[in-house]
């Protein structure tokens, strides 16, 4: 609920009503300077006047506002042309004093001209579950023009009998960079009246003066721009931009005044439907905790939330019988209902108010109900406090000891009570559990079938359950995709299911599919980050500014916990696999409690990480040490490490051929396709996998299906390359043409087309087409120069090819790709080998990944007869790129030449990767 500071009151000239009154401003108002509408420049602020004056007296508050706005544009005219003024008719009046347009020296009185405010009675915030009882007066300003000044002066009066004659009010204080020609906040109250007041802005110390029997505070606005604070500073460090006042002497006075609103005596009539519900709970169990859990579930599940602020409802809850019969209520109504039920069941309980917005700032505010926006129940069972929120969802017996994130609460007691700190602790059961299983038994560099199970509890479970009941198939898949993505990154989902258990308030979302391998070659061995908890953790408070050096850091806004379990099925029964990094984490990391369990058993590597937050602060002096501790943990991420002799990918594929090793991967793709049979994505991804294991026939079949469903340039280009491996050059060229029809700008597509035309006998036409592209210039010019040089060399025009490269390298001497191209062509031609060697060596130094340049230099060494050097470069190339078939082929050629039987394995692997590699190298006179 919202404890709004509308506990306002007015002198006896006005009475509460549901229609605006039209009266002059009261005599106590000090008029703002009249704006000079004729004098204006573009640098003047659009806000001409913002004058707020509050007068407190006799249990009432009168809020006077005078606002004048310059209409600088047609957009501003649209925005300001309809004036809306809300008020609470049960508490007081809306009084309109002035509505006028200033145009040069002319003043147009809208009220005198007959314009009036119309009252809207519909609930403006009903879609936000608020039935506030507010009325809105609306005026559409007639005749408003760009350049006018629109001025409105009005008052809202208020009195809340629930406060037993006490009052509270607050005035928002405008601060830079906001601007106004004239802005003021003014507060007045009778001399001799006990009224506390406070302003929070740094350096603001207004003085109280007496005038005509009243104390007055007058603040010129805007205030200076508030000092910047780090985003993780606790709430109490953020200064409130307000001037507030209260007649409450202290917090116990607030507690005493509010307590009678939650008396439960006689609120559940014998024999009533509600009494019957209480009897059901009593019959189910005699255990007070179980009874409490059942009562809370009844209030949460059977009564929907709806804020009801009408008929004095800002602070006064509706009766439990009404709440139960209507099956709706706000936090006040739900709290009173729950209290009444618990008291009937013999359970000690009391209402407590809290602020969901202000957190630990409440303790710095003046005492008053306006400091709070929520009310819950504190039950006492077995010497422990249970914090029960009737507006929550999914709370069950296991959750009763959980703590809300309120920092401070005020018990409402007849004898009064002071503010109490509320220490948070992690929830009794993790709201989120994630179980991940990865099947990498087929190989580390292959796509990975996965199963991910998300288990969510409590309020989150209810939210997901509601969403699932309303979502269609595509939306459910999108939700599952997002959840899987948060753990594994981009993935394909083939199966997904949702289950909900109302008894435990648990939603379980299961997703199965396939994801790209996370293994990467690092320091000569394949490695996979196994650590999700620390990898995504961060703790980097900024306290570099001197003004921030003593500010602690908030670690979390609320108590929370997560549990992540991962299982990885390793190949080769897990033999030779190792774990690096932290098997054990510090018990406490930057305010988070960490627990880790790790095991390597046979083919399975398992990890369990639990993280629990309790909203702790890190003292400023402890921030450097906490930051260093987190940084150290992140530098030692738990990592799975493959054996040093783990076979290259081509060996894994070669061994898998003719077996069922790929069955789990193919099954995962099959489920993806079955889930979305009319989508191209499943077919194209399976085609990419089959292409990656050099099964071109099956890959082409899947590409056919994908293109039939949703043709794209990329799919055509991919099928063209596959058809080339199937020796279908005519079909490959047709695909390239189809792809270029969709994406004529594709550099790779153009280069592939001209190569195919060249080898189909259209040599001159292909070379001319590339020359035309080069002549056109643009960012891809150098790529076309390189491709044309390749074809010139293949056509026996080596000198021309090298000359073309010489020209562009002279202009781009640091381009590793061009240096590699010239080195390669010289090597294949056996020409200028000494300068070729220099080109490759320089390119290796410049390139981020020089695998292809090592291969080119190996060709040069081969031509020079330096076989050992050639082998060394080929080994280096394959270490960087294990599936670089050209390097395998050349290593096989050299090994056979040197009498090494391993050459046959290399050649077999290269031929598996490229069905045409022999004819490619035959062009350069190289044969095994």
From TrEMBL:
**Domain spans labelled DUF3857:** 58-219
Q: Which PROSITE patterns match?
A: TPR, TPR_REGION
Please name one Pfam family that this protein belongs to.
DUF3857
The region annotated as signal peptide is 1-16
Lineage of this protein's species?
Bacteria, Pseudomonadati, Pseudomonadota, Alphaproteobacteria, Sphingomonadales
The protein's name is DUF3857 domain-containing protein
Keyword terms, alphabetized: Repeat, Signal, TPR repeat
| Protein source organism | Sphingomonas agrestis
Coiled-coil stretches are: none
- Matching Gene3D superfamilies: 2.60.40.3140, 3.10.620.30, Tetratricopeptide repeat domain
